[in-house]
Design brief:
This is TetR/AcrR family transcriptional regulator. Keywords: DNA-binding, Transcription, Transcription regulation. The protein has 10 helices and no strands. With 187 residues, the chain is mainly alpha-helical. α5 runs parallel beside α9, α5 runs antiparallel to α10 and α8 crosses α9.
Length: 187
């Protein structure tokens, strides 16, 4: 007897809700019952849509990655420009409304560094996604080695600034440092 097929639209809705729950509560103690209770569904519903807890966790990381990846893409109507792209990334990632999401991002990042096999896919994409977008922002004629070096500097600097902002809450100081860095890209 075959089980009922997964409704992919419902799964996507549940996944967004599970990601929101995880952003708010963290993932260290992520278990079926509290998630199901918070979403107003049964644990069987979650198992039906996600399979195992590990599969649900992989889906959470995938959706979190997709949400964060949006932050690296500049509006298509603007010409390629690393400074403009980096400024847009900083504006979106440092927005107060995104704080909880990026706290989860950094928590996963730290855990992934301790368990690289378990988080191999996350680690494979955590830099590559931003790298690709920021290299593309430099235009098709940019020297690829230089573009990668500049994109690496932007990624490391913006993530460091974002981590500082999340840890200290000192928006004025961190925004001032971010502005100084972003202005240096205009040169």
């Amino acid at each position: 007897m075959a089980g009922r097929p997964v409704d992919h639209q419902r799964r996507a809705e549940l996944l967004d809700a599970v990601v929101d729950y995880t952003v708010e509560h963290g993932f260290a103690d992520l278990t079926w019952r509290p998630v199901a209770a918070a979403l107003g569904v049964s644990t069987n519903t979650l198992v039906h849509h996600f399979g195992t807890k590990e599969q649900m966790f992989e889906a959470i990381l995938g959706r979190l990655r997709a949400r964060i990846l949006v932050d690296t893409h500049e509006a298509p109507d603007r010409p390629p420009d690393l400074a403009t792209a980096a400024r847009a990334v900083w504006t979106r990632t440092s927005a107060p409304a995104r704080g909880a999401e990026f706290r989860l991002f950094f928590a996963v990042y730290g855990r992934a560094l301790q368990a690289p096999r378990q988080f191999a896919e996350f680690l494979e994409h955590v830099v590559a996604d931003w790298m690709n977008a920021l290299c593309a922002a430099q235009g098709p004629d940019a020297d690829q080695e230089t573009a990668r070096r500049r994109a690496t500097l932007v990624i490391a600097t913006l993530r460091g600034l974002l981590l500082d902002l999340l840890a200290t809450g000192d928006r004025d100081r961190v925004d001032d440092a971010a502005e100084a860095f972003l202005a240096s890209l205009d040169n």
